[in-house]
Specification:
The complex is a heterodimer of chains A (269) and B (257). With 269 residues, chain A is α/β, with parallel strands linked by helices. Chain A has ten helices and ten strands. Classes of the chains: A alpha/beta (269), B mainly alpha (257).
């Protein structure tokens, strides 16, 4: 019950954040002219991204469109061939450690140490992200409650089910209360209840932070995000806010198909 | 100043994590047990030889003592044993993280690759210190019925520590280059054996250039209880070189993808 209220409140907060004049809301993610080549092959071409606090951006695109590559560049796992990334005004190339302190990242495959227990792993994540020692326990209790990891703290991660492992992955990304959260396909392999919980959590997180998530589920973007960008072959082909889409009454699926099918076989709207 | 402190903390955090994961697998415990069995066997064999030869030794003008007859062969053997176990323990250091996709977890955190490399190195060196401490405990047990040359023992312990630091730094670098732990293990044992063979070749040609590159040749001085600055410099440079290369290799991964 309380959760539902929290959901509606946070969803409302997220909606107002977009609707009100965004000038006062600080920019958290700013990527300009992002390019990435693997050898001669261009995977990401001239991508510009800008996110403010309270925005949840859904990155859509067919497999191989460059979603994961962009996320890896935003988190400094990959150096861009050209372009700049700024997190909360800090340049990633100049001060990577300072910039990374503001990011929480859940890659496509959750980076879990199977040999550790949940609490050992989350303590490690908190320490590596510079959470003060005396605050670690409080931070851990909070994320474990948020991600519904109650009663799993002493269990080995390797023995947890896929859904719980995914929750641990989310927990490690948010334990240091980052300003920017990046989720690469966070709901893949989860059952419908878990998907619902995860979406609610993302909405809740996005109320006070910036969230970027990639997904293949179009309804997920409509349900969770405040903005959407569609990538195709490394290029940004479509960008719009969800409220804008709703006003126009456009279907995201039609737009997706129109922009990501090859030019030879266009689909009329 | 505070920055220095936090860098220190991150390195220790990585080291602690390495040890926790190492000791949560049977590998570390089996290795410790087998090494100790092997060294105890060598120790007892040489003790036996000494006890049997004692009546004859007394007749010689300047007889070799208990320490020389036991510590020297024991630590020579310990060096070879460490050479054999190092690849088992270093192979996974980075290759395993890469295979399990946990390297992303470390790289995404606000820490530098130097912290990652030093933390991993430190973690494994703590493990090796345990192995060395157990090896030292064997001759120390002789104090129950005699005296020991502590200078010789200390020289050997330091030598073995530096030698294992070289093994670990090399193994770490090979692991940083490999996608699979098994490849890293095979590569490390191959190169370490190569460095051993250089030592054998060096034996025939005492002043040859190859001798300068041999790890075990530089360990020989320590083994006989002599601490030579040249050997110290060699070990220090060796460790520094491979730790730098490991950090450089990890950093390059961001660029090559």
């Amino acid at each position: 019950m309380t959760e539902q209220i929290a959901q509606t409140v946070s969803a409302a907060a997220a909606a107002t954040a977009v609707a009100t004049v965004p000038e006062a809301v600080p920019t958290t993610v700013s990527a300009r002219g992002l390019c990435r080549y693997f050898g001669a092959r261009a995977v990401v071409r001239d991508i510009n991204l800008e996110l403010r606090r309270g925005e949840i951006l859904g990155l859509l695109g067919p497999n191989g469109a460059g979603k994961t590559t962009i996320m890896r560049m935003l988190t400094d796992n990959l150096a861009p061939s050209a372009g700049t990334v700024e997190i909360c005004g800090i340049d990633m190339l100049d001060q990577p450690r300072k910039a990374k302190a503001h990011i929480g990242y859940l890659p496509e495959i959750p980076p879990l140490y199977r040999e550790l227990t949940v609490s050992e792993y989350l303590t490690l994540a908190a320490r590596l992200h510079g959470v003060e020692k005396r605050k670690i326990n409080a931070a851990m209790d909070e994320v474990m409650q948020r991600c519904r990891l109650d009663n799993t703290s002493d269990r080995l991660i390797g023995l947890l089910s896929k859904g719980y492992q995914q929750r641990v992955g989310i927990a490690q990304a948010i334990i240091h209360d980052p300003d920017v959260i990046i989720f690469d396909e966070p709901t893949v392999g989860l059952d419908p209840n878990q998907i619902r919980d995860t979406r609610a959590l993302i909405r809740e997180l996005g109320a006070r932070r910036s969230v970027i998530l990639s997904t293949h589920i179009l309804s997920e973007v409509e349900a969770v995000c405040t903005g959407v960008q569609i990538l195709h072959e490394g290029r940004l082909v479509f960008a719009e806010s969800i409220s804008g889409l709703k006003q126009k009454g456009a279907s995201l699926e039609e737009i997706f198909v129109r922009y990501t099918m090859n030019a030879e076989c266009p689909v009329s709207p | 100043m505070q920055n220095v402190q936090s860098v220190h903390d991150l390195m220790l955090t990585i080291a602690r994590k390495e040890l926790k994961i190492l000791f949560s697998s049977p590998l570390a415990w089996i290795t410790l047990a087998l090494v100790q069995c092997l060294l105890t066997w060598v120790f007892l064999t040489h003790l036996n030889i000494f006890l049997q030869a004692q009546p004859q030794l007394i007749k010689i003008a300047n007889p070799p003592g208990l320490s020389e007859m036991i510590i020297v062969p024991l630590f020579a053997m310990a060096a070879v044993v460490l050479l054999m176990i190092t690849p088992l323990l270093t192979a996974g250091l980075i290759a395993e993280e890469r295979r399990n996709h946990t390297l992303t977890f470390l790289v995404s955190a606000p820490i530098s690759v130097v912290d990652i490399v030093l933390g991993k190195f430190l973690g494994l060196m703590i493990f090796f210190s345990t192995v060395i401490a157990l090896a030292v405990a064997l001759p120390v047990s002789l104090l129950a019925g005699g005296s020991l040359d502590f200078g010789l023992l200390l020289g050997n312990a330091i030598g073995l520590f530096l030698l294992s630091a070289c093994f670990v730094s090399l193994g770490l670098y090979i692991s940083a280059m490999s996608a699979q732990p098994a490849t890293a293990g095979a590569g490390t044992i191959g190169i370490l054996l190569g460095l051993w063979l250089i030592d054998d070749m060096a034996d025939e040609d005492k002043f040859g250039i190859t001798r300068h590159f041999s790890l075990l040749a530089h360990y020989e001085g320590f083994n006989r209880g002599m601490i030579d600055t040249f050997d110290l410099a060699y070990f220090a440079l060796f460790v520094l070189l491979f730790l730098t290369l490991s950090a450089w290799r990890l950093d390059k991964e961001r660029i090559s993808g």
